[in-house]
Every structure is written in C-alpha cells, then in structure tokens.
Amino acid sequence: SIAQSVSSSLIAAAIAARRMREGGLLALTGAVPALEGGTPGMIGYGMAKAAVHHLVASLALPGSGLDGSRVVGILPQTLDTPANRAAMPVADFAAWTPLADAAALLFKWAADPATCESGRLYKVLTKDGVTRVE
C-alpha cells in the first residue's frame, strides 16, 4: 500500500513540480475509508491513503513547489473494476463508482482547473448507480 499509494503520489508530485505548467492540475487518489476514523481490516491501506490526503493538503500550500497550480484528492468509496468484482463477488455493484464517472470528473478538472479547489479532498460516492461528488 505504501509503494502503491504514497510512493507513486510522491513521484507524481516531484514530476509535477518540475514539469507542470503554472495553472495545471495534480490529482492524487485517496480513499473515503481513510477519512472515517480507522480501517481495522486494512490498516496499511488506511495509513497509506491518509498520507496521500496529507500530501494533497501540503502540496496545495505556498512554497510546495506547485504554486500557481491546483492539487486535489479524488476519494472514491469503491471503484467498479474487474479486480474489485473478483475480490468481492457478492457486493452491491450499484454502490460502486464506474471508472467512466471518475474519468469524467478528472477530465472536467483537467479541462478547467478552476472547477476544483486546490487542497480539497473530493469524495466520489455512488448509490443505486448514481454518482455524486462531495
């Protein structure tokens, strides 16, 4: 979880600080469960995602190397992927966020970074097949 979440986010941030144009967008992936007071069945995962949340907040501040750009966290509850379906075959898939919905949100932010607030963690929640962003 550390390599997958934290290391990849740090690498993306370092590249963004060196190569991203001013006014650009860096979106890092956090997780809703890491906001909700503990992840007893997946402690390492929760710790790693909490670190990503902290990184988003830190990178959005002046002096981070990303001044003039936007840094956000996208926090899906559960993404509807083949791997998740295989791991949880009896879950309620109507409560999972389709990849197309997450991609559409990222596309919107990338096309117009003014549509998102730097430093904010955006929850992406799906219920009964309808996705909303908080």
Derived structural class: alpha/beta
DSSP strand count:
6
Quaternary state of this entry equals: single chain
Radius of gyration: 15 Å
Largest sheet, order of strands side by side? Answer: 1-2-5-6
Q: List SSEs in N-to-C order.
A: HEHEEHEHEE
Low-confidence stretches: none
The amount of helix comes to: 40-55%
Quickly count the helices.
4
Shape: globular
Termini gap: 25 Å
Mind describing the biggest β-sheet?
4 strands, mixed
Overall mean pLDDT: 95
Strand content: 15-25%
How would you characterize the overall build of this protein?
The chain is globular and about 45 Å long. The longest helix has 18 residues, at 2-19. It is 40% helix and 20% strand. The two termini are 25 Å apart. The strands form 2 sheets. The protein has a 4-stranded mixed β-sheet with strand order 1-2-5-6, sandwiched between helices. The protein has a two-stranded parallel ribbon with strand order 3-4. A hairpin with a 2-residue loop joins strand 5 and strand 6 (130-133). The chain contains 4 helices and 6 strands, in the order H-E-H-E-E-H-E-H-E-E.
